[in-house]
Amino acid sequence: MEKIQHSEVEVKGLKLHVAEIGTGSKAVVFLHGFPEIWYTWRHQMIAVSNAGYRAIAFDFRGYGLSEQPADPEKETMYDLVDEIVGLLDALHITKAFLVGKDFGAIPAYLTAVVHPERVGAVITLGVPFLPPGPSAIQNNLLPEGFYITRWQEPGRAEADFGRFPVKSVIRNIYTLFSRSEVPIAAEDQEIMDLFNPSTPLPPWFSEEDLATYASLYEKSGFRYALQVPYRSLKVDTGLSDVTVTKPALLIMGEKDYVFKFPGMEDYIRSGTVKNFVPELEITYIPEGSHFVHEQIPDKVNQLIIEFIDKQSI
């Protein structure tokens, strides 16, 4: 960890916090989800750098140590696509492998669609390719207390999270979202109320890890994170008949709650997803949770390295 270098890189007028290790000629750019940050990729960064690659993870705009845009409520996932390409430009990287976890899968794939010349291959964890647009996540098929529905409601998550220190919010989400059940609150509950205070942290997530995440979210808060991804998920991208022409790998933990989203498991297991990503490989990890890359890092590292070793860039 001490060999990971940290810097500020200006992209689109905002200073981004960038972590980097390795000097290989081929770059792997890691894209975090929520409630994650660059640090979520610590195991993968070290592994791919040891395998000869240049590993880069950064805090998206509005997250962690990166600067906030002037008007977060106007931002969408497309701003992250521009940010990824802008970061590649700033670091003088012509083409990279993109690895996205959770919502980070969405800009990873969108970048491959809109800027295919900049992407060697795409790897995603926990979230497959989703056709862009308002129907990507079908909230209407889940109860009103579905966490995405709740977090899309302006002010609701702010009030819910605001009852607790930032560290408690991160602890609660990490613990709840490590389970195989979709987080759904009752009518008289908020999402944070689902957490049982007697529940320990997952065994693969230390108090030191929690403190690191908390310190970064104490800096940024949750304002941008609630806008991107959650409140901008339904924005129409203007894309239609999308096909990803790049090689891709999906790593799914079979105990990931995302599998329980309506139609999601069938979409993946039936191969329907390959209608959009013809060169997709899918690997299942039986005990894997939504945070499989932190839970079982050696296996995930092996899968990533074996996949990118096969690709040209």
From TrEMBL:
Report a single Gene Ontology molecular function: hydrolase activity
* Pfam family name, one: Abhydrolase_1
Could you list this entry's UniProt keywords, alphabetically sorted. Answer: Hydrolase
Q: Which residues form the AB hydrolase-1 domain?
A: 27-261
- List, alphabetically, the Gene3D superfamilies matched: alpha/beta hydrolase (3.40.50.1820)
The highest taxon in the source lineage is Eukaryota
Cross-referenced InterPro entries: AB_hydrolase_1, AB_hydrolase_fold, Epox_hydrolase-like
Q: Which family does it belong to?
A: Belongs to the AB hydrolase superfamily. Epoxide hydrolase family.
Q: What is this protein called?
A: AB hydrolase-1 domain-containing protein
